[in-house]
Amino acid sequence: MTHKVADCRKYPSVSNCSLTLSGEEDEVVRAAAEHAVSVHEHTDSPELREQIRASLEDERAAV
């Protein structure tokens, strides 16, 4: 299974976040949602998780 990457650096934020998460898709979606809520003050919702899932890249492509 290909690891997926969520990279906060690709999205503008007030905090200029530099977090990058890598792992299996469900792990990354869960961790990225928790991060979005706790750091960026988003509301956890199915829509947020779907947006995160849609933005993931294969780990090879993100390097």
TrEMBL record:
One matching Pfam family is DUF1059
Q: Where is this region: Disordered?
A: 37-63
The record's listing under InterPro entries reads:
DUF1059
Source superkingdom = Bacteria
What's the protein name?
A: DUF1059 domain-containing protein
